[in-house]
Design goal:
Elements: E1 2-3, E2 11-15, E3 21-26, E4 29-34, H1 45-59, E5 66-71, H2 82-86, H3 92-111, E6 116-120, E7 124-125, H4 127-134, E8 137-141, E9 145-147, H5 158-164, H6 170-179, E10 183-184, H7 185-191, E11 196-198, H8 203-215, H9 219-232, H10 237-253, H11 255-265
Helix pairs in contact: 1-3, 4-5, 9-10
Length: about 280
């Protein structure tokens, strides 16, 4: 794998052969763009590895405040690379490795300290729909479509359902899984899969409105809060309160909490620390 040096305000590419992911940085906002738009950005093992490398680097990058996950071409992501999977149908070791790598990637989206926003301009199907579901926020163009269509080709979308059912009610997810039918962006918003739906020409402005709000807040408080949210979300009620009570206690010990409370009481803007 080839990786170029990352410098704020510049672009880098990661991947084997033709780059799979492009990284652009400006003002604390990191934009990761899937660059295989000619093939609807399939989650091949190369694409997964390239995206994983970027996320791992971001986890240690104190200058990165928010991540935008975007894509080139007509679609956002069409899921796993079907040609690649077909070439390994008789190799269960390869298959297990593929799903283990993809699962790790999806979990990493929740574990890195920065909020991740999916910028969905076109179709997001199967593992591509899963990718949207595992981002912290999602903004979709009105032209975007979402589906779990594996049943149509004899490959039930079992792993994609893990992320989607954590956004959408069970019976609606089962409808997606059993029929393979797509839903439009407005339905995805109503069902809880995305936060905003806007005209395609307004997509970048809508994403920027969210990134600006996030960058204006304390990086350390957001990182702590994101970690606590995912730690408690699947817990029992009692365990969830135990997890979040501990998080609140740690939060109050953060200097930014003192600064934020003082700023509120003194009716002035807060001066957050610049790093986590």
């Amino acid at each position: 794998m080839v990786e170029t040096v990352r410098t704020p305000g510049t672009t880098s590419e990661v991947g084997q052969g033709r780059a799979s992911v492009r990284r652009d940085v400006a003002d604390g906002i990191v934009r990761l763009t899937l660059t295989r738009g000619d093939r609807y950005n399939p989650l091949s093992r190369d694409m997964i590895a390239a995206l994983q490398a970027e996320l791992d680097a971001l986890a240690e990058d104190g200058t990165a405040r928010v991540v935008v996950l975007a894509a080139e071409g007509r679609g956002f992501c069409a899921g796993h690379d079907m040609a690649e999977m077909r070439a390994h149908t008789d190799d269960p070791v390869w298959q297990n490795t593929l799903f283990a790598e993809c699962n790790h990637l999806m979990i990493t989206l929740n574990r890195i300290p920065q909020p991740v926003i999916a910028r969905v301009h076109g179709i997001a199907t199967a593992a591509g729909c899963q990718l949207v579901s595992m981002c912290d926020l999602a903004v979709a163009a009105a032209t975007a479509r979402f589906a779990l269509p594996g049943v149509n080709v004899g490959v039930f979308c079992s792993t994609p359902a893990v992320g989607v059912v954590r956004n959408v009610a069970r019976k609606r997810v089962m409808e997606l899984l059993l029929t393979g039918d797509p839903i439009d962006a407005a339905t995805a918003r109503d069902w809880g899969l995305v936060n905003r739906v806007v005209a395609a020409t307004e997509l970048d402005d809508a994403v920027r409105a969210l990134t600006d709000r996030i960058v204006a807040r304390s990086a350390s408080v957001i990182a702590l809060g994101k970690r606590a949210f995912y730690a408690q979300v699947d817990c029992t009620l009692g365990d969830a309160y135990a997890v979040t009570s501990g998080a609140m206690t740690r939060n109050l010990a953060d200097p930014d909490a003192g600064e934020g409370i003082d700023a509120f009481l003194e009716k002035r803007p807060a001066n957050w620390r610049s790093s986590r």
